[in-house]
Amino acid sequence: MAENFNILIVDDEDDFRVTLVKRLQKRNQQVFGSESGQKALTLMDAMVFDVVVLDVKMPGMDGIETIREMKKKNPLTEVILLTGHASMESGIEGMKLGAFDYVMKPVNIDELLEKIRQAYERKQIQEQERQ
After folding, report:
1. Strand partners, 52
2. What is the mean pLDDT of the chain?
3. Could you tell me the residue ranges of all domains in the chain?
4. Is the pTM of this model over 0.90?
5. Which residues pair with 53 in a beta bridge?
6. Which of 8, 58, 63, 118 is the most exposed place for a label (fewest CB within 10 A)?
7. How far apart are CA 21 and CA 65, in angstroms?
8. Residue pLDDT, tens place only, 56-99
9. Which residues pair with 32 in a beta bridge?
10. How far is the C-alpha of 5 from the C-alpha of 13, rounded, in Å?
11. Alpha-carbon distance 47 to 6, whole Å?
12. For 37-57, what is each residue's pLDDT tens digit?
């Protein structure tokens, strides 16, 4: 995708988050990382993120609470939830709160990138509809 858009990866697992950010950057994506829901919301005050990849299971503010707050700040930001086998219900709950989709960990990078592209396309369509 030639167009630049901002992606935010929110995950408390440092290795996972850092690796994912690096792998997406290698694919020429503008990617930022955050280790908590609270920090992600602070970043959203400073920048507009088109797509957020958000872990459901995090200490403190979990992914469900975080998506609720993100959608209040910017309803058009698309969110893809990362869930483990044990938290499938959270993925479904997140969809009800407006998540674009959810993916299971461990995540396939190409599959995730495709979902990010689809989420970004949906955001663009919604922005055009609002004009």
Report:
1. 8, 79
2. 92
3. 6-114
4. yes
5. 9, 80
6. 118
7. 23
8. 999 999 999 999 999 999 999 999 999 876 667 888 889 999 99
9. 8
10. 24
11. 9
12. 999 999 999 999 999 999 999
Please give the DSSP secondary-structure letter assigned to residue 58: -
CA separation, residue 99 to residues 27, 28, 75 (Å): 24, 24, 10
Beta-strand pair 101-104/51-55: unpaired
In the sheet that 6-10 helps form, which strands lie side by side, from edge to edge?
30-34, 6-10, 51-55, 78-83, 101-104
Secondary structure of residue 75 in the 3-state scheme? coil
CA distance to 60, 76, 89, 102, 116, per residue, from 121 (Å): 31, 11, 26, 16, 9
CATH class of 6-114: alpha beta
Q: What is the DSSP letter of 108?
A: P
- Give residue 44's identity as a one-letter amino acid code: M
Q: Where does the pLDDT of residue 2 fall: very low under 50, low under 70, confident under 90, or very high at 90 and above?
A: very low
Residue carrying the six token digits 């829901």: 37
Look at residue 130 in the predicted model and tell me its pLDDT.
87
- Among residues 60, 66, 58, 61, the alpha carbon closest in space to that of 99 is found at 66
For residue 55 the two structure tokens come to 């872990």
CB contact at 8 A, 32 and 44: no
pLDDT band at 1 (very low <50, low <70, confident <90, very high): very low
